[in-house]
UniProtKB/TrEMBL annotation:
Taxonomic lineage of the native organism: Eukaryota, Metazoa, Ecdysozoa, Arthropoda, Hexapoda
GO biological process, one term: methylation
Function: Protein-lysine N-methyltransferase. Monomethylates PRMT5, modulating its transcriptional activity. May also act as a histone methyltransferase. Plays a critical role in cardiac development. Acts as a key epigenetic regulator of gene expression during cardiac development via its dual activities as a methyltransferase and negative regulator of HDAC1.
Keyword Chaperone found: no
Source superkingdom: Eukaryota
GO annotation, cellular component aspect: cytoplasm; nucleus
Entry keyword annotation includes Transferase: yes
Native species: Zophobas morio
Assigned keywords, A-Z: Metal-binding, Methyltransferase, S-adenosyl-L-methionine, Transferase, Zinc, Zinc-finger
InterPro entries for the chain: SET-MYND_domain_protein, SET_dom, SET_dom_sf, SMYD4_SET, TPR-like_helical_dom_sf, Znf_MYND
Name of the protein: Protein-lysine N-methyltransferase SMYD4
One Pfam match: SET
Length: 530
């Protein structure tokens, strides 16, 4: 829900801030350019006493909004009841979830769960309905209303067992016997190599057929992009799992989870700190960047994670993240200036509100440096993931950002030999072309030769990732593919294959095969048989 306001991406927001601070940058430019490390950049602002005092007084003036209030919970629940009576079940459900996030007393919590179970029942989410009924009873649902809830439990149990076959999204799992001994999330068909031209990169250690799975990776960290999602109250902030009966953080109204397990894990690892600054972040500048929260989380994890010296390349360890490229010296200085200025203010906020440095006994200097570095890593390496969920009546999409350390080892090609898709936040990488033993495996960071022309692709790759692509499509300047989706039918595909077969000089080798095989793989994935 965006209230019809324009939703800005982080890149657009940053551009607006750059314009806003331009006069200040021009004044500081020569001094700032002398700072070559992230710690020095942060200190450039943090050593300006007047600036620090100004930010501190701004923080003091912010009145964090009330996060738990039975009065507010009851108001929202009643609004939910109106929507429910109007048969707007989904709107009712969201209002009940918001009511839950404000509810303070057991009574208010239990009634909100009870009411939400009704909306879930009518939406056909019987399993979720039963879970909410249990939660309502656990929180001491009023006895005077219990009869209704017992009846709903009976009806939902029956409906649940009577329902037609449910299509569950299947996630591929690498069989034990095919696991890669040196890369945690990979199949035993790739390896990491390094050279001067490509840095560390992924190479096939045997011939790989089209459609074969190369890796099943889980992110080190995710960030739900609430503003970009169609429904921010329907996703778990910890695992991005889609969920119609999320449970709120016990302290704030800004984090929701699929289960008590995810809530406890997030709270233990980072949310207990994040929760303390969330009410201030947006108000300090009137904007909130995803990469601030992401960076705070990751910096906290970096400080607290247990050391593990295993030689295997692990997706669940900070060490791999710490080796990712941030391009801090390749970014335009003006962009770095604004990013640092804002980060320094957030750093003051963290110091004021979390008292983190006493607890961890960490050096502030290290924290400052990492806090900025992780934002740079995030800008370069975070992957946007979108997934669709629902039943036959309701569906919705989530946009989240995730950081996968293995994904970041794949180099880019505009004509890649692998592709990826996600289920929840699990990423599956497959071959989109046959890959010979010893060949490098490429992924696309976004631009494909078929959709964008060479100039557009090169401009984007240079701006975001600071490199010039030398893939075959770029070297040979392949033309963009233009067709309207409506014309893609069997006849059309047959014609394409015929044309490609007739004109051997035009298509890149493997193209015909990959077209046919690609369709087969897509079909098998959609059919759930792969
Ligand atoms: Zn979860
Ligand atoms: Zn919270
Ligand atoms: Zn290219």
């Amino acid at each position: 829900m965006t209230d019809g306001k324009k939703v800005y991406t982080d890149t657009e927001l940053l551009e607006l801030q750059i314009q806003r601070y331009r006069p200040r940058y021009l004044k500081d430019e020569s001094e700032f350019k002398k700072c070559t490390t992230n710690a020095a950049r942060m200190n450039f602002f943090l050593n300006q006493e007047e600036e620090v005092a100004h930010i501190k007084s701004k923080i003091q003036q912010i009145k964090p909004h009330v996060t738990k209030s039975d009065v507010k919970a009851s108001e929202l629940r009643k609004l939910g009841n109106v929507q429910f009576q109007n048969k707007s079940d989904k709107d009712a459900l969201i209002l009940y979830t918001q009511s839950l996030s404000f509810a303070k007393s057991d009574e208010e919590v239990s009634v909100a769960y009870g009411n939400r179970s009704a909306a879930l029942f009518y939406m056909g989410f019987y399993e979720e309905c039963l879970a909410d009924i249990d939660r309502a009873f656990r929180h001491g649902y009023p006895e005077s209303l219990s009869a209704k809830l017992f009846k709903r439990k009976k009806d939902a149990t029956k409906a649940y067992s009577d329902r037609k076959k449910v299509v569950k999204v299947k996630t591929y799992e690498i069989p034990q016997s095919e696991m890669n001994p040196s890369i945690q999330s990979a199949r035993n068909c790739i390896e990491i190599q390094a050279n001067e031209k490509y840095g560390r990169h992924i190479v096939a250690s045997r011939d790989i057929a089209i459609g074969e799975v190369l890796a099943v990776d889980n992110p080190y960290l995710v960030e739900l992009q609430a503003d970009m999602s169609s429904d921010p109250f329907l996703f778990c902030c910890e695992c991005l799992k889609h969920c119609y009966n999320v449970i709120p953080c016990l302290n704030c109204n800004e984090a929701y989870y699929c289960t008590e397990i995810c809530r406890a894990k997030a709270f233990q690892n980072y949310h207990k700190y994040e929760c303390l600054i969330l009410p201030y972040v947006g108000q300090l500048f009137g904007i909130k960047f995803d990469f601030w929260l992401f960076s705070l989380k990751i910096t906290l994890l970096a400080m607290t994670e247990e050391k593990n010296d295993e030689t295997m390349y692990r997706s669940d360890r900070y060490k791999e993240i710490s080796e990712l490229e941030g391009h801090s010296n390749a970014d335009p200085p003006e962009q770095t200036y604004v990013l640092t200025l804002l980060s320094a203010s957030i750093f003051i906020l963290i110091k004021e509100k979390i008292k983190i440095f006493k607890e961890f006994e960490v050096f502030e200097e290290k924290f400052k440096e990492l806090f900025l570095y992780h934002q740079q890593v995030f800008k370069v390496n975070a992957v946007t993931i979108v997934s669709w969920h629902g039943n036959d009546k309701f569906y919705t999409s989530v946009t989240g950002l995730a950081l996968y350390s293995l994904y970041s080892l794949f180099n880019h090609s505009c004509y890649p030999n692998t592709f990826w898709n996600t289920s929840g936040s699990t990423m599956v990488v497959r071959a989109s072309l046959p890959i010979k033993k010893g060949e490098q495996c490429f992924i696309s960071y976004g631009p494909y030769f078929a959709y964008d022309n060479k100039t557009e692709r090169q401009e984007r790759l240079q701006r975001l990732y600071r490199f010039t692509c030398e893939c075959r499509a770029c070297q040979e300047n392949w033309p963009k593919v233009t067709f309207s989706p409506a014309s893609v039918d069997c006849k059309f595909i047959k014609q394409v294959i015929k044309k490609l077969t007739e004109n051997q000089a035009l298509p890149p080798p493997g193209y015909i095969l990959s077209l046919r095989k690609g369709l087969e793989v897509a079909y098998r994935i959609l059919d759930g048989t792969s």
